[in-house]
Amino acid sequence: MKIPFATRIRFDGDPRAYGMFSDMIKASAVFRYQKREENEAGQLIATIEDFENAKLLYIEIGGHDRDKYTDAELRVLNAIVAKGGEATQADIQRGCYNLSPGRVSDILNGRGKQGGGLLYKCKDIIVEEGRPIRYRLRSGFNPAYSVSIDLMEPT
To answer: Counting C-beta atoms within 10 Å of the first and last residue's C-beta, which end of the chain has fewer, N or C?
Structure first.
């Protein structure tokens, strides 16, 4: 399988996810193998249509697994967004329809395991120490979409 325009793909997101995305381009070409050309080595040649199909599918499924949020995590993120992108734990509790402080803490920090929870998973949350601690989202953060995929013009 050959993707002749691979060097023109601009993929801003988890670098490990690019492999999954390129596999989706290849799968689109294989799915349409009867309509695709082959090179002299017998490899199918992916087209821009395959890129566009892969892009739509990738966005539709929500990107790479690591970036997907649970329903509870989305509720917390949306509660922060609703407060203008900055919220205390109490604000989050109210925005999530009065979740308990312990449950909000579990969602943010994980349950008893180091490197778990939303603070680990979402690099766009900034923790501002103080009393009370504030959770701020980077400007432009969208919990539903955090990848940009484009095809640059040939040079």
So the answer is: C
